[in-house]
Design a protein that fits this description.
Order of helices and strands: HHHHHHHHHHH
Mean pLDDT: 80
Strand content: under 5%
Number of domains: 2
Largest sheet: none
C-alpha cells in the first residue's frame, strides 16, 4: 500500500473543514429563511439605531434617556411622513398633466418607431395594445387574487416595521447594557475577543449605514435637480426612488434612472430620455470614484468585485432584501476578521505592537 501524498492529505484536511463550515453557513441561512421576517426586523432595528444613536446621545445630555429616545424616533417619523406627503402631493398635482403627456408621448413613440431606422408596422403596435387589454380582461380574477395576496404582504410588512421600531427603542435605550449582559454569559476566556469583534462589527455597520445614507441623499438631490431642470414629470417621486435604490450598490441607481428614462421618453421624447440615460453614466462615475472613496472608505474596505459578487449572491439568496443586506454583512464579517487577526498579532508580538 503506497503512502498518501502530503499534498492530498493537506487538501483532504482542508476539504472536510470547508464542508463543515459550508454546512454551518447553510444551516444559518435555512434558519434565517424560516424566520426571515424577524431577521429583517432586527436588521431594520439596527439600521434605525445606527442612524439615531448620535442624536439620541446628544439629546440625552439635556433630557432623560427615555425622552431622548422618544424625541429621536418621533422626529424621524415626522420627517419621513413629511417626505411621503410631499411625494403624494407631487403625484396628485401632476396626475392629470402626466396622463395627457403619457398619451401624447406614447403616440409620438409609436410614430418614432414607425419611421427609420426601426420601421415598425403600426398594426403591430396596435395589436400589442389589444393583446395587453385582452390579457388584462381574461386574467382579471388572477390579477385580483394577486392583489388580495399583495394586501396580505402589506400586513406582513407593517408587522415587520412595527417589530423593527420596537427593537430600535430597546437598542437605543439600553443597547450597551444588553451587549454587556450578553458578554457576561460567555466563558471568561472568550469575552475579550467577543468584545473586540462586537466593537469592530458595530463600528463598521454604523459607518456603512451613515455612508450609504449620505451617498443615497446626494444621488437623489442630483437626480431630482436634473429631472426638474429637464422638465421631466414626477421629479420628486423619481428622486425618492433613486434614494431608495441607492441602498443596493452598483445596481440600484442605474435601475432607478432607467425608470426615470422611461418616464422621460413617454413624456418628453427621445432627446430628453437620452440625457437621462447619460445621467446613469455620470451618477455611476460620481458614486464610484468620488462619493464612495470619500464617505465610505473608512467603514467599508471591499474591492468592487467583492461588492458585485455580494450583491448578486444576496439577490439569489433572498431577493431585494438580500441585495440590500449583502454588502453590510460582508463588510461586518471582514472587519471582525481583520480586528481579530490584529489582536492575535498584538498578542504574539507585544513589544512590536507597543513600539508601533
Amino acid at each position: 500500500m503506497q503512502p498518501v501524498s502530503p499534498l492530498l492529505r493537506t487538501a483532504a484536511s482542508y476539504a472536510w473543514r470547508l464542508l463543515v463550515v459550508g454546512a454551518a453557513v447553510y444551516a444559518v441561512f435555512v434558519v434565517l429563511g424560516r424566520f426571515h421576517e424577524i431577521a429583517v426586523a432586527l436588521f431594520l432595528g439596527l439600521v434605525v439605531s445606527a442612524l439615531l444613536s448620535a442624536p439620541t446621545r446628544r439629546l440625552a445630555r439635556a433630557v432623560p434617556r427615555s425622552i431622548a429616545v422618544t424625541l429621536s424616533l418621533v422626529g424621524s417619523a415626522v420627517l419621513l411622513l413629511g417626505v411621503l406627503t410631499l411625494v403624494g402631493e407631487a403625484v396628485a398635482g401632476e396626475s392629470t398633466t402626466l396622463v395627457r403627456e403619457f398619451r401624447e408621448g406614447l403616440a409620438s413613440i409609436q410614430e418614432w418607431l414607425g419611421g427609420p431606422p426601426f420601421r415598425v408596422n403600426s398594426n403591430t403596435l396596435s395589436n400589442l395594445q389589444e393583446k395587453i387589454g385582452e390579457y388584462l380582461s381574461t386574467h382579471r380574477s388572477t390579477l385580483l387574487n394577486q392583489a388580495v395576496s399583495g394586501a396580505g404582504q402589506v400586513v406582513r410588512v407593517l408587522t415587520v416595521m412595527a417589530l423593527a421600531i420596537f427593537c430600535s427603542v430597546f437598542f437605543l435605550y439600553g443597547g450597551d447594557r444588553q451587549w454587556s449582559w450578553f458578554r457576561e454569559q460567555l466563558p471568561v476566556s472568550a469575552r475579550a475577543r467577543v468584545g473586540i469583534a462586537g466593537s469592530a462589527a458595530w463600528r463598521t455597520f454604523t459607518g456603512y449605514t451613515h455612508g450609504i445614507v449620505i451617498v443615497a441623499a446626494v444621488n437623489a438631490v442630483l437626480v431630482g435637480l436634473a429631472l426638474y431642470l429637464l422638465g421631466v414629470p414626477l421629479a420628486v417621486p423619481l428622486a425618492l426612488l433613486e434614494f431608495l435604490a441607492a441602498f443596493i450598490p452598483l445596481v440600484g441607481s442605474p435601475v432607478a434612472l432607467a425608470v426615470a428614462a422611461v418616464v422621460a421618453l413617454a413624456a418628453k421624447g427621445p432627446l430628453v430620455a437620452g440625457v437621462v440615460v447619460a445621467l446613469i453614466v455620470v451618477i455611476g462615475q460620481l458614486e464610484g470614484h468620488v462619493l464612495h472613496p470619500l464617505v465610505m472608505s473608512r467603514a467599508v474596505q471591499l474591492h468592487p468585485l467583492v461588492v458585485a459578487i455580494s450583491v448578486v449572491a444576496g439577490t439569489i439568496a433572498a431577493g431585494v432584501v438580500g441585495a440590500v443586506v449583502a454588502v453590510p454583512l460582508v463588510s461586518v464579517v471582514w472587519s471582525v476578521h481583520t480586528a481579530l487577526r490584529e489582536d492575535r498579532i498584538r498578542a504574539r508580538h507585544p513589544a512590536q505592537s507597543a513600539d508601533e
